[in-house]
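Possible regression after last week's pipeline update?

I re-ran a chain I had predicted before the update to compare outputs. Posting the input and the new output here so someone can diff against the archived version. Not blocking, just want to make sure nothing changed silently.
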Amino acid sequence: MNKAHFMRDRVLGIDRELPLLDGSTVRYVNLDNAASTPPLVDVMRALEEFMPYYSSVHRGSGFKSRLSTRAYDEAHEVVAELVGADTRRNTVVFLRNSTEAINKVSHCLPEGSLVVTTVMEHHSNDLPWRDHHRVIHAGSTPEGRLDMDHLEEVLGENAGDVSLVAVAGASNVTGFIQPVHSIARSAHDIGAKILVDCAQLAPHRRIDVLPDDDEAHLDFVVLSAHKMYAPFGTGALVGPTDFFLEGGPDVSGGGTVKAVTLDGVHWQGMPKRGEAGSPNVPGAVAMAVAAKVLMEVGFDRIEEHESALASYAMGRLKDVEGITIYGDTSETDFQDRVGVIPFNLEGINHFLLTAILGFEGGVGTRSGCFCAHPYVLHLLGLSPEQLEDWKAGLIAGDVPEVAGMVRISLGCYSSREDVDRLMEMLDRINAGDYVGSYRKSDGICMFVPDGFPDPAEGYLRFW
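New output (post-update):
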């Protein structure tokens, strides 16, 4: 496969021409893969093949039901294979996304447990713990890496009391990859379990939970299919079966029971006990197919391609006039981080910058605080007074004015041409070479150009 076009023939829609503000069309460049990835062609083909046979799962006696049940059950096995989980002692539970998976673990922990997490987390790996438990946040270094000394200090001071350590496999803001197996050893040394939010890590690096009796074993792993090139509403939770069997399910209803009388309930085993209601069978199939493709292509090849491209992007960004890049920029080989780079451009609002990139360059990026407010605010280095202004602005609804940053995030299919398009547009913006007159908006974008009719109706003809 041509390295310059790595994976581009296996990702849907990446060469689609879309309209710009000046009336022309251009090949869309998606540099927002940390939010969601486009679907793999393999996934779409598999769903096209599967959907004529889609039916109810479990207990249906018809051919379609038997086939759907087989596909759904085997999808669990594929996800277990993806992370190297031993299904004799661990279970795979399909849920809507990694957020729901983390909430499930939170609900299953004894109320008031002590959970250690970090200031670097996505809100999905922070807020669920706050809802029901005591939480301590390990800090971050000035350049944005996990402060391992502080984490070890927190664990040592609370040895025997910590129930769970919850960390991201890779940051969705800076891309830094955490030493999760080392953290697992430290957690197990004090009698705690570890949960790793692998939503950002899974499409970029191989995940190995290691054998259950290994002191570096990862107890819980959560995944989101929409970040793994299968955006069909599915996530997965991998964890020890016994943990989920200690009590009733956190969500009860159809499919979770063996028998129900007016006097009592007898629950199913796992994973059925954890998958209440009718499951998203197509989503599970899509996730399993995507997992198979990533394993087939090989994470070593994906890492090699993405690391080289991210290094190229970092090198080019450093040359942009007036740019501030957040996170450690002293090392650019990206061996310990995925291809996520946050930055700001002097003199231009981060929301406005992404709007111009999209409307006039056909380059999709993201701006704001990326559902990781504490971490982004730490990286921005805001004073206490600025933090209060930031909070007041959000609460008052004046979102376009609050501090934040721009993020680019690469996928396995991204190319140097994609990066070059971004750089061309940043140079144009620095030179004032854009035509739109932008105003604040309450719609999808925080800024929109005046006089630009939304062409979406011409593209979406669903109803």
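Follow-up from reviewer: compared with the archived run. Residues 306 and 412 are 6 Å apart (CA to CA). Marking as no regression found.
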